[in-house]
């Protein structure tokens, strides 16, 4: 059997959902997941002790607050939050991002709480 | 000491080099590397036996030839070539891509030959 070989169009995938702060998986890369999310407002401070986390802004504007200063990302800009570095994503306007990190990493890291949500597949 | 926390602007990084078929590292993510490359023409058929490889087109148009059909990527589209799948990138016009795979993966995979080149840091 030949598997279908389909590209992933980021804009088309983003058009498939409206929920904020919910990671949608769009591809696997070995044991990593490529995910999309839409953000607006302020998340919570949290840390991923065991992994770096890549943020790439597709549209909007994302501020990643860090304890030693903010990183502001415009479309076409990326930042890798190093493992163990506490951070808090904030978006004043609705912002679409691509996320990359190992499978199973939770959005709230060590902080937990009611905003914790596993990534969901997006077909 | 506080490390500087700098975002990576893909367009600015792409403006820093002209060489074709040379992977430029722009970020680390755990033991993975985020790289940029400019492509034009046809590469060689090769396989990465031990890893998937992510291609995201930033500008231009990339055809990834596979033995069971082509995948064509426009800007904002990505594709993960699964490990063990032979592929040959082709770009009719100059095309800029973001690549993601484990550190140390060579561009020509199992094929080797004169086009083999390790990724270079881009500061």
Characterization of this structure:
- The structure is a homodimer of 123-residue chains.
- Chain A has one helix spanning 10-14, and strands at 8-9, 24-29, 32-42, 53-59, 62-66, 69-73, 77-81, 87-102, 120-121.
- Chain A contains 1 helix and 9 strands; from the N terminus they run E-H-E-E-E-E-E-E-E-E.
- The model of chain A has no long low-confidence stretch (mean pLDDT 94).
- In chain A, strands 2, 3, 4, 5, 6, 7, 8 and 9 form an 8-stranded mixed beta sheet that branches.
- In chain A, a hairpin with a 2-residue loop joins strand 2 and strand 3 (32-42).
- By secondary structure, chain A is mainly β.
- Chain A has one domain: Jelly Rolls, CATH 2.60.120.10.
- The A-B interface holds A 2, 5-11, 26-30, 32, 34, 51-54, 58, 66, 68-69, 71-74, 76-80, 83, 100-102 and B 2, 5-11, 26-30, 32, 34, 51-54, 58, 66, 68-69, 71-74, 76-80, 83, 100-102.
């Amino acid at each position: 059997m030949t598997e279908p070989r389909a590209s992933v169009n980021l804009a088309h995938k983003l058009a498939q959902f409206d929920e904020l702060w919910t990671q949608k998986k769009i591809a696997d890369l070995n044991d990593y997941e490529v995910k999309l999310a839409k953000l607006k407002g302020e998340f919570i401070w949290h840390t991923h002790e065991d992994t770096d986390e890549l943020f790439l802004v597709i549209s909007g504007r994302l501020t990643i607050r860090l304890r030693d200063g903010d990183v502001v990302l415009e479309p076409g800009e990326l930042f890798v939050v190093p493992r163990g570095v506490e951070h808090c994503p904030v978006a004043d306007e609705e912002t679409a991002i691509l996320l990359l990190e190992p499978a199973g990493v939770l959005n709230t890291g060590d902080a937990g709480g009611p905003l914790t949500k596993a990534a969901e597949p997006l077909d």
